[in-house]
Write a structure and sequence with these properties.
The protein is an alpha+beta fold and 478 residues long. The chain folds into 4 domains: 136 residues, Beta Polymerase, domain 2 (2-Layer Sandwich); 86 residues, Hydrophobic Seed Protein (Orthogonal Bundle); 151 residues, Hypothetical protein af1432 (Orthogonal Bundle); 82 residues, no CATH class. It has 24 helices and 12 strands. The strands form 4 sheets. The protein has a 6-stranded mixed sheet with strand order 3-4-2-1-7-8. Strands 5-6 form a two-stranded antiparallel sheet. Strands 9-10 form a two-stranded parallel sheet. The chain is globular and about 95 Å long.
Length: 478
């Protein structure tokens, strides 16, 4: 098994001091599945104060027996290991945290308190890589099942967040919920009200960032959890659409998430919420369902949702922007470079590809077989062309204001002419594009016949623009 050296050394050090020590939890599951664990946890019968005596840099600042051990490499912290004393827990009056924690001397007591069988695994790397599996976790890993340890209702009454974690693991690992575990979630779904909005948000982000985000959101709906997280989204269930939309609103949103080509959870959230305003804007006009201005109402609803779930302002504004602008109009031959520039200003250069990915998700979620039609490829070409402005005086290390100060001349055609000549020469020899070289050359050009120089410069610039344009067209197959 591929276990980091500093994890092995920590376990070895505890065992050297005559304590039991095991690698435990989700990291063991990941190792068995040949995945790279994000976190490594160790459990031991050593008490926190005993752990602190062994590891001088360790910190103990909680009441749950968890000691944090920073691992340094060349004075830089490369990892923080959680070392937890065997413990059992009693009473969960707030449905989130134990009222009482009791330190135990046996490993089985510690494994009994864990949430799912696939996480209730312990590994001793120095006894033939022995796996301690009291609840059939390895069998469930092979069967790809999420099963609660012991009685599911007991586990979820102890900590309501575990219901969301069950769905999240299903989405991340592409596992199914064991039926009894799922029935317990459905029964206790209402207890999600005991979980903070921040914790719900964090689990939602992990579901969206998983390998099966649409499966995860669909499972939240099956388990009756979605109505407590995104009730606005469930309003689209059964709301029919017309024309090119062959699915009801909720299913369309779910399929748009499934087909989103972007792995960024923010873009995926925009794909999930982009038509959230449709149920409230639906009208039948001349026998046809319409949803006028649903994108603007959807943007407002998305803003309220993300505010409620305590998303950061940066993430909220980004997703709202995508939802608001997902209906952008574009037809080849009807849209000019100027209108594309206005779109860039409106949505932000950094959001352009996200917006196209959202349109692709929307199309595929509607049942359209072709994800990237010619007009979207042409839009990518136009966006690339106008945003990069591959041959422009903007690429120069000097500008008009600099020239007026340097040459002591007033604004006029001469400034533009000099800049064009400087640009043409920089195209021919990029080494000339330094402030010192440009200042020197500008002084030489001040009193020359700029009309002739400008004419020659324009030829060079036009040739370069055409060459760059051909290259961009080739890239986008337009």
């Amino acid at each position: 098994m591929d276990i980091p050296k500093h994890i092995l050394e920590t376990v070895k050090m505890l065992q050297k001091h005559k304590y039991e020590a095991y690698i435990v939890g989700g990291c063991v599951r990941d190792v068995l599945m040949k995945k790279t664990p994000q976190d490594w946890d160790i459990t031991t019968n050593a008490r926190p104060e005993e752990i602190l005596k062994i590891f001088s840099e360790a910190k103990y600042e909680n009441a749950f027996g968890t000691v944090l051990l920073p691992i340094r490499q060349k004075e830089k912290v490369i990892d923080v290991i959680e070392i937890t004393t065997y413990r059992s827990e009693q009473g969960y009056s707030d449905r989130r945290h134990p009222d009482k924690v009791r330190f135990e001397t046996k490993l089985d007591k510690d494994l009994e308190r864990r949430d799912f069988t696939i996480n209730a695994l312990a590994l001793n790397p120095f006894q033939g890589e022995q796996i301690i599996d009291l609840f059939g976790g390895q069998k469930d890993i092979r069967a790809k099942i999420i099963r609660a340890v012991g009685e599911p209702t007991d586990r979820f009454k102890e900590d309501a967040l575990r219901m969301l974690r069950a769905v999240r693991f299903s989405a991340q690992l592409n596992f199914e919920l064991e039926p009894k575990t799922q029935r317990a979630i459905v029964k206790l779904a209402g207890s999600l009200k005991f979980v903070s909005q921040e914790r719900i948000r964090d689990e939602l982000i992990k579901i969206l960032a998983s390998s099966q985000p649409a499966q995860g959101i669909g499972l939240l709906q099956e388990c009756k959890l979605l109505q407590y997280i995104l009730p606005e989204l469930t309003q689209g269930i059964g709301v029919s659409q017309d024309r090119h939309h062959i699915h009801p609103v909720f299913k369309h949103n779910l399929l748009s998430l499934q087909h989103c080509p972007n792995s960024d959870w923010r873009v995926r959230l925009a794909a999930l919420l982009h038509d959230i305003g449709k149920p409230k804007t639906k009208k039948i006009i001349k026998g046809v369902a319409t949803f006028y201005n649903h994108e603007y109402l959807g943007a407002k609803m998305t803003d309220r949702i993300m505010t409620r779930l305590r998303f950061s302002n940066e993430d909220r504004l980004r997703v709202v922007n995508l939802v608001k602008n997902h209906m952008f109009y574009y037809n080849v031959g009807e849209v000019t470079a100027a209108s594309v520039r206005r779109l860039i200003v409106k949505v932000g250069k950094e959001n352009l590809q996200d917006l196209i990915d959202l349109r692709v998700a929307d199309r595929l979620g509607s049942g359209t077989p072709k994800a990237m039609p010619y007009k979207l490829r042409h839009l990518q070409y136009m966006m690339d062309k106008v945003q990069n402005d591959p041959v422009s005086v903007k690429m120069l290390k000097i500008n008009g204001d600099d020239l007026m100060k340097l040459l002591k001349i007033t604004p006029g055609p001469k400034i533009g002419a000099i800049l064009e000549v400087l640009l043409s020469e920089a195209i021919e020899d990029p080494k000339l594009n330094t402030l010192a070289q440009l200042k020197k050359r500008a002084g030489e050009l001040k009193n020359l016949d700029l009309a002739e120089l400008r004419s020659r410069a324009q030829t060079v610039i036009d040739e370069k623009r055409q060459a760059d344009d051909r290259q961009i067209k080739k890239q986008y197959k337009v």
